[in-house]
Design a protein that fits this description.
alpha/beta, 6 helices, globular, 129 residues, 4-stranded parallel beta sheet
Length: 129
């Protein structure tokens, strides 16, 4: 089953969204990577790497993010993964709340990364460069 990582500048937002999406799909592995390691607002590539490894499966991982620099931190995190892992991890441009809930439900249906990405296309809000 595809795992899900939620990246936000706010630890509270990431944790709250993990809780919400988890209510919709309890069997899906969801990790929150919000805020910095010292509790400030911001993002941290190390927290994202840890979150990816926490939910990683051979089916892959989807990363959803809130705003621009969260994408940059997620992209940096991907560079630290092995090539094999990196091939199975996707950063997705989608509305964060709606995307996370929809992605969790789609993951719970055992859909592939490609199928889930296709399902979420309509929620894209053009955040990625």
């Amino acid at each position: 089953m595809v795992g899900l990582v939620i990246v936000s500048h706010s630890e509270k937002i990431a944790e709250g969204l993990k809780e919400l999406a988890g209510q919709m799909a309890e069997e899906v592995s969801i990790a929150a990577a919000g805020g910095t390691n010292d509790g400030r607002l911001g993002t941290d590539a190390e927290k994202i790497i840890t979150a990816i490894k926490e939910v990683y499966t051979q089916d892959g991982v989807l990363i959803l993010f809130d705003i621009g620099s969260a994408y940059m931190s997620a992209d940096i995190a991907l560079e630290s993964l092995t090539e094999e892992m990196r091939e199975k991890v996707e950063i997705l441009d989608t509305a964060l709340v709606e995307g996370a809930v929809t992605a969790a439900i789609e993951c719970s249906l055992n859909k592939t990364l490609t199928e889930i990405k296709e399902e979420l296309k309509s929620l894209s809000i053009a955040k990625m460069p």
